[in-house]
Amino acid sequence: MKLNTFRALRSRNFRLYFTGQALSLLGTWMQKTAVSWVIYAQTNSKFMLGLSVFATMFPSAAFSLVGGGVADRYNRYRVLLLTQVLSMVQAALLTLLVFFKADAVWGILGLSVVLGIINGFDVPARQSLVHELVKDKQDLPNALALNSSMVNLSKLIGPAVAGLAIETLGATACFGLNTLSFVAVIGSLLAMQRPAYVAQPHPKNILGELKEGFAYVRATPSIRYIIMMLALVSLLVLPFTTLMPVYAKDIFHGTAATFGLIDSCIGLGAFVGALYLASRPPGANLHRILATNTLIFGVGLVLFSHTPWYPLALAFLAVGAFGMMSQITISNTLLQTTAAPAMRGRVISFYVLAYTGMVPLGSLLVGVVAQHIGVQNAVLAQGVLALGLGALHWRSLHQQPAVRTELPAQANSTQGLALSS
After folding, report:
1. How far apart are CA 237 and CA 382, in angstroms?
2. Is residue 420 part of a domain?
């Protein structure tokens, strides 16, 4: 593979961040897998599966706008460090809860809400901080794609390890290992070499700055379009993952290891998709890639939905996940390279809202729909909807300029938002 694919790792701070996050995310995906399996095993309810996703993601969406304002207003590095410590505490409490209480469904949901609130501040700070960790701002799109590769490699490995751990050691082991994994990311943050933070004046209160951010998004058609399309795919298509425990347990008559393998195939497809995006040369038309991959996403889900042979179904699922990756990564890249530096945190908060706000609502929706028309028909419908959204992307191509993946020269300034010690 070309060295060009990993060019963002030349920046020491980003390299530290990348390594720490890679280790921590293994634990995160183990915890996610264990939560879904425990909830479905104890309730046998598709609605409760949707509710478990909703419990984490909706609070994250509800607090993301405030989190975006905080990321623009305060030291993003310190905000991220605090959210990582709090996430570690949440994982430790979850470990103790599951260890001491056999039937802990509502406790798990309650702690999921806590994690969602933390994520509402964590994600805008973390996403906007990546810009500051990369020395050469021309490498930012590559850094974002590598970040997605890391997330999806973790999703590839984490669920498979979680499935084996649940069967051999129990779900508590997954939660405990996630707690320990935060040591890696907190250590990497503390090891960074950071110039002094230069505070910027903020004459408006945080509510005024949120209104300013909303007005900016509304007045910028390219940003508004990206956020609206991400919101649609997040509501209508991305929640297909909520139904994967049902496929594992009821359709393929498997165990927790089966569910882990299904999740890992999603991670494999998304990982390959992220590496593909990282290898795109500067100047690639990201809108065209997004349109093409949305169609691939839809085709993969349509083929997966009713395929009875397990190995072939996994292959189709990986194809769909390859296309799915663009929805999140390209949207993030386009927003980061388009938004004004002073607005980046707030723009990212709308990106988070479009994703984490719509996916939990979609998870509840797909859970209800699956109860009425069946799980396989529900996933088939989501694939058809993805094809429709891909067609809308293609229709808009003649209206969208070919977005280059370099940043303008002035974006190399951190605008007073450098990291501090």
Report:
1. 5
2. no
* Segments forming the whole domain that contains residue 311: 3-412
Matching residue, tokens 């959204």: 389
For every one of its 421 residues, what pLDDT tens digit does the chain have, with 9 covering 90 and above? 445 677 777 788 888 888 888 888 888 888 888 888 888 888 877 678 778 877 887 788 788 878 877 877 778 888 889 999 999 999 999 999 988 886 788 889 999 999 999 988 888 888 778 777 877 766 777 777 777 777 767 767 777 788 788 888 888 888 999 999 999 989 998 988 766 655 565 566 667 777 887 888 888 888 888 899 999 999 999 999 888 888 988 888 888 778 878 877 887 888 788 778 777 776 677 788 888 999 999 999 999 999 988 899 999 999 999 998 878 778 877 887 777 777 777 787 788 788 777 887 888 888 889 988 999 999 999 999 999 999 988 888 766 554 444 433 333 322 222 233 2
- What is the CATH classification number for the domain harbouring 346? 1.20.1250.20
* Alpha-carbon gap, residue 250 to 290, rounded angstroms: 33
Whether 266 and 155 have beta carbons less than 8 Å apart is answered as yes
* Domain presence at residue 271: yes
Domain for residue 418, yes or no? no
236, part of any domain:
yes
Of the chain, the end-to-end C-alpha distance in Å amounts to 36
Tell me how many domains the chain contains: 1
Dist. CA 381–CA 383, nearest whole Å: 5
Helix axes 76-100, 105-133, angle to 10 degrees: 160
